[in-house]
Design goal:
This protein is α+β, with helices and mostly antiparallel strands and 361 residues long. The chain contains seven helices and eleven strands. This is Cellular tumor antigen p53-like.
Length: 361
């Protein structure tokens, strides 16, 4: 109900006063005395009264328009402060669907190479990286989200964006594309992929998995990179990795895999250089601690014989340190997963993988 001599109802005055008090608390720059603000509202109403606005008989339609504008003003205020999503997790887990990322090593060549020592891909810009995803049992209605993040914790909260030169409108890679793709370093060559930006600025590509074709267990998916790690106004030589999450339509995460990637001009040279630096840093007697890396299951080159040893072995090991125990157990799980995929006999390995996971968890 509108107070006599006032343009605003009591509830509207209360809401406006609360909003200004909220703004004051938000940035510490606006200093408004509640009494002074109420007095200003009264002055505004009196001024409007002098123009014979408040004494007009509004029709029901006009009153609805006023209420709608007031509601819209409140909604806009809420939209100006979007919820910021947390930093993306980086711990891998297979989950209930035994989610696996598989690198199609048969197609590597001069444009990209994979380092098994570093569990890292080195690839030219604007070249295709073929990957495959597997989840068991196969279920429809699942999605894969690919998010490029900085590997080091001190940079992880910052979104990975293309450099200014590669985002320029006259760059050939930006022609005839959805404007939402321009900032994304990574693109998926799937016509139903959607490009999203979280409240904290992190970019991701969300793609429906569908179902594997008859006779195969994996779903192939190709990715292309449109900026280099060395670009100074972009990634600026900071190491990056791809986080792949298996999600439901409601964005519930069911599994997570990651793959370190460097987009560069000379993949083979950079691979050899980083492997040499890694070998030097973990040389015997150096006293430095080597961080265990999880290998990506790799498909064998054509003609290479696949091991068919299906005998089950028992190990009784004594290991120093709980972290080292977890790393060994996780490594054993991933190695068996890769062997099951290569041998096209994942059902044989699954009971032992599940047993290893129970120990790991």
């Amino acid at each position: 109900m509108t107070k006599e001599g006032s343009l605003f109802t009591s509830s509207q005055e209360e809401a406006l006063l609360q909003e200004y008090m909220t703004i004051k608390d938000f940035d510490g720059q606006i200093d408004i005395d509640p009494l002074q603000f109420t007095f200003s509202l009264d002055n505004l109403s009196q001024e409007l009264n002098s123009q014979q606005l408040t004494n007009c008989n509004y029709s029901d339609e006009q009153q609805i328009n006023i209420d709608e504008k007031f509601t819209l003003h409140q909604n806009i205020s809420i939209m100006q402060h979007p919820t910021v999503t947390p930093i993306l997790g980086k711990e891998e887990f297979a989950g209930q669907f035994n989610f696996q990322l598989i690198l199609n090593h048969q197609n590597s060549g001069k444009h990209w190479v994979y380092s098994e020592k570093l569990s890292k891909v080195f690839i030219h810009m604007e070249q295709v990286l073929p990957l495959q995803f597997q989840w068991t049992p196969p279920a429809d209605g699942l999605w894969v989200r690919a998010t490029m993040v900085y590997k080091l914790d001190q940079h992880r909260s910052q979104p990975v964006l293309r450099c200014h030169n590669h985002m320029a409108p006259d760059n050939s890679s930006n022609r005839n594309i959805d404007p939402r793709q321009v900032k994304h370093v990574i693109r998926c060559l799937h016509n139903t992929s959607s490009y999203e930006e979280a409240g904290n600025g992190h970019l991701s590509v969300l793609t429906p998995l569908g179902m594997p074709e008859a006779g195969v267990q994996n779903v192939p998916m190709d990715f292309v990179f449109y900026c280099k790690n060395s670009c100074t106004s972009g990634m600026n030589r900071r190491p990056t990795e791809l986080i792949f999450t298996l999600e439901t339509e409601q964005n519930q995460i069911l599994g997570r895999r990651k793959l370190e990637v460097r987009v560069c001009s000379c993949p083979k040279r950079d691979k050899e250089k980083e492997e040499g630096e890694n070998d030097a840093s973990v040389s015997i007697g150096s006293g430095k601690k080597r961080k265990a890396t999880t290998p990506i299951p790799v498909l064998p080159p054509p003609g290479k014989k696949v091991s068919t040893d299906n005998k089950v072995y028992s190990l009784n090991l004594e290991v120093v340190g709980r972290e080292n125990v977890n790393a060994i157990i996780k490594y054993a799980h991933d190695v068996m997963a890769g062997a099951g995929i290569r041998n096209d006999n994942i059902d044989l390995y699954k009971p032992y993988m599940d047993e290893v996971l129970r120990k790991y968890q």
